[in-house]
Design goal:
single chain, 9 helices, elongated
Length: 171
């Protein structure tokens, strides 16, 4: 799927790169596929394609997505970062640290409940003597990923990134 709005793609890819949900290689492959579909290519895409590593990639994507309003939207951030949980590229504990602070009354009730459960399992651990139980943290993270799908204003675009990125990051 070609993105008509390049800053949206840059912002989504920045979130994925910053969280290490997807590798440098997988993001470059996605951008290369995008480049092959275009007659006019934005310079940031060429810079991503030629980036030498994760740090350079983040710098390029940061410039391309600078101040994108989506980066301030908790629903978009959580839904995008959940790709890392689904792909198994982000540890559930790391996901919890990044998303539990994003709880806002604007999120649907099931998402707030799932985030509260994730916070309890990963960060508070009151029911387990203050020690996280990895299987419970992972289950709570998967539940957040499940209930968050489709709530972002950019849900369709986030969804369009899932399958192609998984097939490229597996190789």
């Amino acid at each position: 799927m070609q993105f008509d709005d390049d800053p949206d793609l840059a912002a989504l890819l920045w979130l994925l790169a910053d969280s290490k949900a997807l590798s440098h290689r997988a993001i470059v492959a996605r951008v290369d596929a995008e480049i092959s579909q275009r007659s006019a290519v934005p310079s940031w895409m060429l810079d991503v394609s030629l980036s030498a590593g994760p740090n350079e990639l983040l710098r390029v994507l940061d410039r391309a997505s600078f101040a994108h309003p989506m980066l301030q939207d908790p629903a978009t951030t959580i839904e995008t970062l959940s790709i890392g949980i689904d792909a198994g590229t982000v540890a559930a504990e790391d996901f919890a640290i990044r998303v539990c602070g994003l709880v806002t009354s604007e999120l649907p009730g099931p998402v707030i409940s799932a985030l509260s459960e994730l916070e309890e399992e990963a960060l508070c651990c009151c029911m387990h003597g203050g020690v996280p139980v990895p299987a419970l943290v992972a289950a709570a993270a998967r539940e957040v990923s499940r209930v968050v799908r489709g709530i972002s204003p950019l849900a369709e675009r986030i969804s369009s990134l899932r399958a192609p990125l998984f097939s490229q990051s597996a190789g």
